[in-house]
Q: What sequence folds into this?
């Protein structure tokens, strides 16, 4: 069958459009020229400056602390939620489904604003805890969706088979369902981890003094032009780690 | 399993996420609406008592151009993103599994890369000393003194850039399930490539199409970092005003009133789509 060349061309244009800014950014992180208008030669200079910027590494520690704990919590909550959504059909699950879906399409600014209202009105001091709560809230829906996708592919006759072979209910869940579901749960957790590391808007609303996460640090660095090339270097490292995590998550989700 | 234990098991599994979202999602949304009717206090908090003062303050004609700009920027972003995503996902669903994974990764990486970094990348690309400006000068495509940054066109460009993956991913999920045999059938019956794309493929993925459009439109409505970083002083969107009321004026009730308005603007298209989904499902079952 003859195929039109137009869709391939548009695909190519879109991929170039999506990647060109990132490629230029990565190249500029090795460019001796400050504004990156032309190539002034290769340098490690910006990476050395980044290495010496202690406040960046302190922010990284804050970010990792939040990302790890928020993705763990949302993995547990999201897996339970996905299991309930998959196994039951009732008005309760209709409400549950809606509550899980709406945060996915809620603009960040509204989520940040409403959580800030909650914390201000209930008198909770903003800080690490409030950031963690906010991150669990927006990661929960994403984890649920990923695990739900995996559950829909799961062959539940395997559980019946395990029961027929004499496994107890708990055994069949622990030895059959969980191991087969684990890649999906991990993929959901990885997604939550990247979302948490990258979030700026919601974190900005609910952060307090002394809780500067990496994106908040990047935003304040962007205000001073002195550190612009250092941001290129930091961005390159972040894009690289995003690539690794996304590739790992793809591997986990690939149906076997 | 008897009905009683089934029910308690259901509640046990549902309660953790339901309670979490109830406390940290539903209640905060209600609080935003309630706060719009509260007076502000001087410490940037919320005072006691009730007032309509904030509602009167928000009902200010100065907001009209901002609301209008927010709406048209979001609409154009939605149209462009969907128009690019449709042929792209059509292509992605037709190529082999390996190429498909590669293309998907190409979409996911910018999607997962830090939002600020992506805006920053455009900022340095379009900087007066940046590579793109120099290239366009050199090609004599723009005058010497043209500024590519700080105008509404840049805001639109970066909006499209950041929202495009939100359009591609749901459309791809729909295109992946599309039966491409239908296209062959349409061609056998004499339809040209354009006709079969528009009359067979597009209706076939319409669920994904609606989700994609909704996702892009709603997310664009709430943007404020893009106009702040690459836009000029007159390119503010509604989100910019909300952030300004919270952080610069420290007037939480005023910010809440604006946020409540935005929330309504977001909920209306979401409800329309939900009703449409329910309706089309019933139709499909009949």
A:
């Amino acid at each position: 069958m003859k195929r039109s060349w137009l869709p391939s061309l548009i695909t190519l244009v879109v991929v170039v459009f999506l990647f060109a800014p990132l490629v230029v950014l990565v190249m500029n992180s090795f460019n001796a020229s400050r504004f990156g208008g032309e190539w002034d030669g290769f340098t490690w200079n910006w990476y050395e400056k980044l290495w010496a910027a202690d406040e960046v590494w302190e922010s990284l520690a804050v970010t990792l602390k939040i990302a790890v704990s928020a993705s763990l919590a949302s993995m547990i909550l999201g897996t339970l939620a996905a299991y309930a959504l998959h196994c039951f059909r009732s008005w309760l699950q209709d409400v549950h489904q809606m509550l899980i879906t709406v945060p996915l399409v809620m603009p960040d600014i509204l989520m940040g604003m409403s959580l800030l209202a909650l914390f201000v009105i209930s008198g909770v001091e903003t800080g690490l805890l409030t950031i963690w709560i906010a991150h669990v809230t927006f990661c929960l829906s994403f984890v649920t969706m990923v695990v739900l996708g995996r559950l829909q592919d799961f062959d539940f006759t395997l559980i019946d088979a395990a029961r027929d072979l004499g496994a107890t209910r708990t055994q069949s869940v622990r030895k059959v369902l969980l191991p087969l579901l684990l890649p999906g749960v991990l993929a959901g957790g990885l997604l939550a981890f990247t979302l948490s590391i990258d979030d700026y808007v919601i974190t900005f609303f609910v952060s307090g003094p002394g809780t500067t996460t990496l994106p908040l640090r990047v935003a304040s660095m962007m205000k001073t032009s002195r550190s612009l090339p250092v941001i290129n270097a930091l961005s390159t490292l972040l894009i690289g780690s995003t690539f690794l995590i996304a590739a790992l998550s793809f591997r986990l989700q690939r149906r076997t | 399993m008897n009905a009683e234990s089934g029910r308690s098991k259901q509640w046990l599994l549902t309660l953790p996420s339901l309670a979490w979202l109830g406390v940290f999602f539903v209640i905060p949304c209600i609080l935003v609406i309630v706060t719009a009717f509260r007076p502000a206090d001087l410490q940037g908090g919320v005072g006691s008592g009730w007032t309509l003062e904030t509602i009167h303050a928000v009902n200010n004609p100065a907001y009209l151009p901002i609301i209008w700009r927010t709406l048209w920027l979001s609409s154009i972003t939605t149209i462009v993103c969907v128009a690019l995503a449709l042929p792209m996902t059509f292509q992605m669903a037709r190529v082999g599994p390996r190429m498909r994974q590669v293309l998907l990764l190409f979409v996911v990486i910018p999607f997962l890369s830090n939002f600020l970094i992506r805006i920053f990348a455009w900022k340095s690309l379009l900087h007066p000393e940046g590579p793109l400006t120099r290239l366009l000068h050199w090609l004599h495509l723009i005058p010497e003194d043209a500024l590519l940054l700080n105008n509404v066109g840049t805001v639109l460009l970066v909006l499209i850039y950041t929202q495009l993956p939100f359009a591609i991913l749901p459309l791809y999920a729909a295109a992946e399930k599309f039966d491409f045999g239908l296209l062959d059938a349409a061609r056998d019956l004499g339809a040209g490539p354009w006709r079969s794309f528009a009359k067979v493929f597009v209706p076939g993925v319409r669920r994904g199409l609606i989700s994609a459009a909704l996702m892009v439109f709603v997310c664009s409505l709430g943007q404020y970092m893009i106009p702040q970083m690459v836009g000029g002083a007159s390119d503010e969107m509604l989100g910019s005003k909300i952030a300004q009321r919270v952080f610069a004026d420290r007037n939480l009730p005023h910010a809440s009133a604006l946020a409540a308005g935005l929330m309504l603007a977001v909920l209306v298209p979401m409800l329309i789509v939900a009703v449409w989904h329910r309706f089309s499902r019933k139709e499909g079952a009949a």
